[in-house]
Amino acid sequence: MASSMNVAKTLSSVESWLQELKSAKKTALVQDACKKVHFIFTSGTEMVEEYDLKSNELLVRKWKTKTTLGGAGKWEFEIGEQLCLAASLEVEPLRESSLNPIFTRKDTKQSFQWRIRNLPYPMGVYSVTVDNDNRCCIVRTSNKKYYKKFSIPDMDRAGLVLDQAAVSIAHANNTLIIMYKKPQEILKMERLVQQEIQKIKASKDGDVECNPS
Question: What's one Pfam family the UniProt record gives for this protein (predicted)?
């Protein structure tokens, strides 16, 4: 009975997310060998996804929500990372050291994947465990030099329980690579999302982050 209820909850969560995507205002732009899709949800929240034109691999997913006063917020990256622009008008008086660990997400078609750069410790030092009570993964080092919690928003949107057996890690060039094998429910959801995206006529001009006409 519990298993049937979990399946029903998952189906409901997936359908809810797909319905949100369908009801969102959408524009698409082909630029720099990428297809960029801009969503504006009924809540006013915005999402931009960027796909490689050749491989159809998802390169970037970022979100922007309005501030408590109703103003435009900043883009928050779920996948990919913010590039530092030399021409940026925003000056940051304090900048993190380039030697600090840098945490980014870069998925493959079969797995969610995160990279933590500037971690020079040997492979045997690292462990990654799932915490379903708090719906997150936890990275630890036995030498107590690094600790981080992170969630998997895709799993939350689908209402899926995290699975320790889906986690694997690798380490090379001072970078820890964490992989989480995508369950079949996620792969199916991504196929359905792609079907929606393919319906959007893409422009080759303009800016995907501008308000759609």
Answer: DPCD
pTM of the predicted protein model = 0.82
Residue 166 backbone dihedrals phi, psi, to 5 degrees: -80, -10
Owning domain of residue 125: 2-80+95-203
For 46, other C-beta atoms within 10 Å of its C-beta total 21
**Mean pLDDT for the chain overall:** 86
Hey, how many other C-beta atoms are within 10 angstroms of the C-beta on 14?
19
The CATH number assigned to the domain holding 136 equals 2.60.40.790
Residue partners of 96: CB distance under 8 A and separation at least 6: none
Helix (H, G, I), strand (E, B) or coil at 68: coil
Cβ neighbours for 116, distance < 8 A, ≥ 6 positions apart: 101, 102, 103, 139, 146, 148, 175, 176, 178
pLDDT tens digits, 92-151: 455 555 689 999 999 999 999 999 999 999 999 999 999 999 999 999 999 999 999 999
* Contacts (Cβ under 8 Å, ≥6 apart) of 154: 112, 186, 189
